[in-house]
Fold this sequence. Notes:
Layout: E1 6-7, E2 15-25, E3 33-43, E4 49-54, H1 61-73, E5 82-86, H2 91-96, H3 119-131, E6 137-142, E7 148-149, E8 152-156, H4 162-174, E9 179-183, H5 192-198, E10 202-208, H6 216-232, E11 248-252, E12 258-260, E13 265-269, E14 276-277, E15 282-287, E16 297-300, E17 305-311, E18 315-316, E19 321-329, H7 331-334
Parallel strand pairs: 4-5, 4-6, 6-10, 8-9, 9-11
Antiparallel strand pairs: 1-2, 2-3, 3-5, 7-17, 8-10, 11-19, 12-19, 13-15, 13-18, 14-17, 15-16, 17-19
Helix pairs in contact: 1-6, 4-6
The site of zinc ion has 5 residues, from loops.
Amino acid sequence: MESPIHCSIDLDATGKQVGRLELPRSNNTSGWSHLFIPIVSIAGDGGPTALVIGGVHGDEPEGQVAALRLARETEPAELSGRLIVVPCASPEASRAYTRLWPSGANLNRSFPGDPEGSPDEQLADFVTRELIPRADVVVDMHSGGRSGLCPPWSEMHLVDDAEQRGRMIDAMLAWGTDHHFVYIDIAGGGLLVGEAERQGKVVVSTELGGGGHVTAATHRIAQSGLANVLRHVGVLRGAVVEPGTSPIIGRATHVDNYLLAPESGLWETFVDVGDNVAAGDPVGQIHFIERPDRVPAVVRALTDGVVFVVRAIATTEQGDNVVVVARPTTVEELR
Ligand SMILES: [Zn+2]
């Protein structure tokens, strides 16, 4: 079935075009309406195509700012390939500064999507069938958002195909962050990156800091890293900047790397991002706001490693991730 989404620009034309995807909607204030999702295509002659997406989650502004600047500031003459940029994929969530859509949908659990499904599934389907297939490289920028405190990093899944994996490692390193992260999906499938990997693309994702605020340094590494990856893959002209120092690569490919709250309550962390911990070490505890007499529930590391994520919102529900402990790894091991 054809997508119900209308794209206002010809994605295969040369030059620079600023347009929108129109997603049919019907809400309390307008029975007949479309949700506009901006899309920018910038193309010279030939070369590889990069699909750059920001704002899949609305409380992650770092990637949206980087993508907005890339889309506005890049001209076709600066490209040796083509750029398709969707800077803010979930506009209603961005306006609300929430991770999820107002409907409760998580666009990053909606893939591969469905042209006859809910609006998020319709958008995912359009990305799956119309945007990803046009791309050689897919960049999907995320951050810890309001809920997770982490250093800025680029990240990847360990895909099975060795050749694809090798190209993804090289692209991940090209971001130039001090940290990189190799992860598994402990919170369900349906991710955009998973669909792009399934289609054999070179997929680069990020968690560009988080905790509900963005530092100037994080904005800089979001923008410089994105540009360097695009030079590395041959889309943007210019010399690739080699990362200066050897980065810390954290591998969290086991469920034990992701520590979950045993009960609901108020989270107190004992560790900060970058701390080394050993299995059994207490990393924090859950307090019970109605029970000052009750001993807090201590959360302990299940593995040795480095703290990569600490929960940023103190109010915590049972099962929420409170800390991620990653094992330092090497490029050689990942290949
Ligand atoms: Zn996200």
